[in-house]
Write a structure and sequence with these properties.
Layout lengths: L22 E6 L10 H10 L2 E7 L6 H11 L26 E6 L11 H14 L3 E8 L8 H21 L3 E6 L2 H10 L4 H4 L2 E2 L6 H9 L3 E4 L9 H14 L4 E3 L43 H12 L3 H16 L14
Parallel strand pairs: 1-2, 2-3, 3-4, 4-5, 5-6, 6-7, 7-8
Helix pairs in contact: 3-4, 7-8
Amino acid sequence: MTAIDLSLRPNSKLPLLTSIYPLIDTHTHFDAPVFDEDRGLQARQAYEYGVRHLVLVGYLARHFDRLYTIQQAFAQPLQSTMINSTTSITDASVHTDLYPQTHIALGLHPFYIEQHTDTHLEQLAQLLDEQQPLAIGEIGLDAFTNIMKQPEMLAKQQRFFNAQLDMAVRHQLPVMLHIRKAHAEALALLKAHTYNAHKLGGIAHSFSGGEQEAKAFVKLGFKLGVTGQVTNPNAKKLRRAIQAAVEMYGIECLVIETDCPDMTPIMCQTSAGSQSALGQSIDNEWQGAAGHNRNVPGNLPWVLHTLGELLHVAPADLARQLWQNSCDALQVTWAYPEPSVTIE
């Protein structure tokens, strides 16, 4: 890696990071159209800041093809900063090792349960047979809105959750959980299912529960996904939950993620606004989010450094352990590249 120019910092007004470390972004929506204008540039920036792998996570069946289009584009040499879901770009003059390796998780997101049909479950099952993605996700339960709390809505969510857990067992794949305002219900369902996270791995993505829920998910074998929310000093419940889980299980229970374009670290925000665009409207594709508060994979080091400060762990030690945790959660054996560069 080379020294990082000011123009490649996620936000040039940020204080400088003095060192960079190899990182895995375990959860992104980097395929969203909000990245179409500068996806290549953002991917290069993420690589420069240490991100070596990132996971493209599915949520609606009609967007599954888009995930593979983006992955295929990054698997080829690139000539442009613009990589969108309809363009294939090739040029041997630019080397692919400037970009993180991309991987795919496929799932039917509980927030969009009204849009999901049994045909979508069948399509997912077929793709799992044909494509063998890295994981199944994001799946789970969501009771964030009054509509989502309705018994018939929760019942349908539970049916789709169970069906996708069945697929994970059948294909021996880890799952990425989306649990919001329904931690007790999700824990009960997981305990009753044959899915074994101790064996298959799995991540409680963007964990938002309390101390007891955090420890309960880790006890079941899941890693807790930590996002840019941890950088907000007012996120006291989340911070206490992370500390409680680590106190009982060690830092081995954590992974980090951007969940981009959501969950922008507080130091990377330049205007007031919602921390999360997801849930503001059905399938708005984050187009309503303030552009300058859009989260990007290159912001992941701020999650690392803030988490290190919270847990009193040196960034170098934490980065190495988080890499191993991510590999364990995703059931992969990616070698840890030794960090060798200081940012000038």
